[in-house]
Amino acid sequence: xxxxxxxxxxxxxxxxxxxxxxxxxxxxxxxxxxxxxxxxxxxxxxxxxxxxxxxxxxxxxxxxxxxxxxxxxxxxxxxxxxxxxxxxxxxxxxxxxxxxxxxxxxxxxxxxxxxxxxxxxxxxxxxxxxxxxxxxxxxxxxxxxxxxxxxxxxxxxxxxxxxxxxxxxxxxxxxxxxxxxxxxxxxxxxxxxxxxxxxxxxxxxxxxxxxxxxxxxxxxxxxxxxxxxxxxxxxxxxxxxxxxxxxxxxxxxxxxxxxxxxxxxxxxxxxxxxxxxxxxxxxxxxxxxxxxxxxxxxxxxxxxxxxxxxxxxx
Length: 314
Ligand SMILES: [Zn+2]
Description:
This protein is an alpha/beta fold. It contains nine helices and 13 strands. The strands form two sheets. The protein has an eight-stranded mixed beta sheet. Strands 9-10-11-12-13 form a five-stranded mixed beta sheet, covered by helices on one side.
């Protein structure tokens, strides 16, 4: 089901319930119908007012805030591809996580997940490279729920260019794209242009782009750092976010997929010579030095338990 933004009516529905001493059992449809004809004195909103009020107020912060967005789930049962036996992996499916960082100086989106067109579509239509894709909420809808439009996002960072991370990236072509050359070159290669998902990020080719070398301090105060972690792809990166109450957190992209890769020291064969081992050592050292948490976006244990938007971490 495509998420709708009926937030203005929620108050009206609550108002009706509160205004009636013995509210009848009202189902969703009846409640919506009742809300559409306000009888409790609330003025009927004009079309313009309705349009303006469908967007929640944009978040204002004095220190970084981190939202975790549900960008889909991959149904998958081949952990052997990651050099793990089935009995070694508690859950071989994968969550797909996007993150919004709200910093006093601007907004940064880290990854864009599975494409929004998947919402409401059956699993059998969308099995790609052995991964079944399902999605319940659009990224754009989850952002709208917290008052954020694509136009308000200053920076876009993709952990890497694989299709489960770039699904809606074209929506953010007005942002400044922070990217490593290794990944950008792959994204606009002849082979990539021929893939069915090229159109999902093609608009980034003309986006304002900052080509990164090494780690990058996005806002100049050390609270949001792009960490170069090549290996899974040539330009793969992670994101360090220093949060006032939660403490520092490293969003590791696909440096690991399963927590068991980290526990058992495994990685896909094809990554053994591409730099993943070095990048993992770099991040583990960073975690020790900073006392930081590692958030593995594809880990189902993480995905299941993490607080998701509209809640946040700060
Ligand atoms: Zn991935």
